[in-house]
Amino acid sequence: MPEAQTLPTRRPSKRDEAWRYADIPALERLGVDALDTWQEITLAAGETRRLTMVIGSNAPELHRIRLTLGEGARAEIFASNIGGDYTRVEVEVTLAKGAHFEFGGVTIGGGEAVREFVTKTVHAEPEATSNQTVRSVHWGTGTGNFLGEIKVVKDAQKTDAAQDFKGLLLEAGASANAAPQLEIFADDVKCAHGATVGQLDEGARFYMAARGLSPETAQRLLVQAFIGDAFVELDDEAEREKLLDAALAALEGAAL
Q: Which site from 18, 71, 186, 190 is most exposed, i.e. has the minimal number of CB atoms within 10 Å?
């Protein structure tokens, strides 16, 4: 009989690291049943699947996706997380031999909302690859999180896995958090992760202002260049523009 789900807690003795930065009161509004709802996707050998997502509203949202990739399969997920309330996208991936997982995500917004991506990537067989690129842009007291766990099992030689997180804080009260985790049991692998958090390049903003661009236009262009990295691997121009436009729309009307 499956174990009953329980909501995460902040109590140190029972804290689940995958929920370390989550908005627990917002999860309580969603209710424990939300934890049981997964979108299950299985790809056969050589199959390719892409998901593009614009998510977020003025109510809490939890999106959970579980992917199982056959030999040589490829799965891509690209998402703009623009929630006005707590919004979490959680992805679990298991990769067979030679499979590839690509993830590109942007969290963006102000207010008090927490917006996060959480991934667990299991390299279960040799020669699989994965790449994850996340960009976070926040202001007010908004928070952007990325928790990325990579597991490489004992026989998954020739694994190549990478994660890259960058946060951009437009106001002092905003925050961005990255928690990469690597668990590697094979010895012939390439696994890399990087995380940085900073502010807008004031030199670039001054340069644009000196050439007649308004502060709002300069900021939009700089943010667009920053978040564009998350969607570089998306080769559908229309879908890429949809995700970028949704993310940049969050900047409209922001008093920064």
A: 190
- DSSP states of 145-179 as a string? EEEEEEEE-TT-TT-EEEEEEEEEESSTT-EEEEE
Give the pLDDT score at 2: 43
Q: What angle do the packed helices 202-210 and 215-227 form, to 10 degrees?
A: 130
| Helix, strand or coil, per DSSP, at residue 224 | helix
Strands 143-152 and 129-138: unpaired
Element (H, E) at 69: strand 61-69
For the segment 48-95, what is each residue's pLDDT rounded down to a tens digit?
A: 999 999 999 999 999 999 999 999 999 999 999 999 999 999 999 999
What does each C-alpha distance from 9 to 3, 12, 152 come to in angstroms?
17, 8, 28
pLDDT digits 0-9 by tens, 83-92: 999 999 999 9
SS3 call for 196: strand
Location of structure tokens 């998350």: 230
Beta bridge partners of 194: 164
In Å, how far from its chain's centre is CA 204? 27
Question: Residue written as tokens 């890259």?
Answer: 164
The CA distance from 129 to 227, in Å, is: 23
- How is residue 215 written in tokens? 């502060």
User: What is the band of 16 on the pLDDT scale with cuts at 50, 70, 90?
Assistant: confident
Determine contact, residues 112/153, Cβ cutoff 8 Å: no
